[in-house]
Amino acid sequence: MIASRSAYAAECSGAREAGPRVSHRLGIDIGGTKTALALADAAGVIVARERFPTEPSGSAEDDLLRIAARARALAEASGVGWPEVEAVGVSLPGPFDRRGGRVLHPPNLPGWGVVPVRDVLEAALERPVRLENDANAAALAEWRYGAGQGCQNLVYLTMSTGIGAGMILGGRLHVGHRDFAGEIGHTPVEWPGERCACGFDGCLEAYVGGAAWQRRLRAVAPPEGAIAVRAGGRGQIRPEDAVAAAHAGDAFAIAELERLADYLSRALAQLVFSVSPERIVLGTIAVAAGEALFFEPLRRRVAERTWPGQAHAVEILPASLGEDGPFRAGLCAAD
Predict the structure, then answer these.
(1) Quick one: which of 19, 24, 56, 227 has the fewest CB in 10 Å?
(2) pLDDT at 98
(3) Given CA atoms 209, 215, 219, 225 in this order, what sign does their dihedral have?
(4) Would the pTM count as exceeding 0.90?
């Protein structure tokens, strides 16, 4: 569904006739399950947005061309028009080649191998396209607009289909050598461990990532338990069903959230020792799980795995942008 502001569109239309040209940016956030598009004016005000299922077809180029067509349609339907769009930012899962404008076999986009995303989209959209790893873009969004404001050393963790991290260190985005910084989802947290989508065993993502957790829940949740009943059958369970059941007091669901907090704390303790951030901000699943069921046990476990002074020096907080997060992430990639 496209959301736009007709009054703003009319104002822009008049400005094109009588005043200076108003430039706009388009943000695209490509996730493992959903894609978000946002159109913003020069002041950063979002004037139109759309979200739809990603649904990888097996052909990355076809998927990108479909997204490009919807982006053009969004601009036209908003009343702004495609000629007013001057730049495009794309937030998408890694691994990621910033210099080449490519993604490199992203585990959460089936059928995508080494994909020249920038080249394909620049040809389709006829605009400069800037790519950013999704975790980095989300970190920038929370740092500028959300829970990371006023902070100079921030780690943001995506917690949706997969797990990634974006790091703001010393007030600047840190990407590391060859852009591999922040791949915390592939930090080993168990030996030996579950197989991860990346091909390794014991990765954090294999225990805390939404796709992995969904597979586990469908395999181990009681067939007649609260989660399965809520989902309409064990084979239909999604992570949000477990979160809702935990909030309703289901013991199995609460234990599952505690399990997630335990595994996540192993990776966060490593971050505290190696990066020493002021804040760690968690998105999606953690936000839905909430303070009592997730953040309190998580902070307690991180404190048990770090020195007392470290645990007190870092804040572990939920992301605050909510539904605006993916839209802001795509736009931040355009900057």
Answers:
(1) 19
(2) 86
(3) positive
(4) no
CB 128 within 8 A of CB 87: yes
Domain range annotation of the chain: 3-133, 147-319
* C-alpha 131: how far from chain center: 14
Burial of 1 (0-12, 13-18, 19+ CB in 10 A): exposed
Structure tokens, 146: 């959300």
For 80-115, the pLDDT digits (tens) are 999 999 999 999 987 888 889 999 998 878 899 999
From residue 65, how far is each of 105, 148, 321 by CA, in Å?
Answer: 18, 34, 28
Give me the phi and psi of 280, to 5 degrees please: -120, 120
CATH number of the 3-133 domain = 3.30.420.40
DSSP per residue, 192-224: S-PBPTTS-BSBTHHHHSHHHHHHHHHHHS-TT
Instruction: State the alpha helices, DSSP H only, in the chain.
Output: 6-18, 60-78, 117-125, 134-145, 205-208, 210-220, 226-231, 239-247, 251-274, 285-289, 296-304, 308-313, 325-334
Write the CATH number of the domain with boundaries 147-319: 3.30.420.40
> Helix or strand or coil: residue 73?
helix
Structure tokens at 192: 């030996």
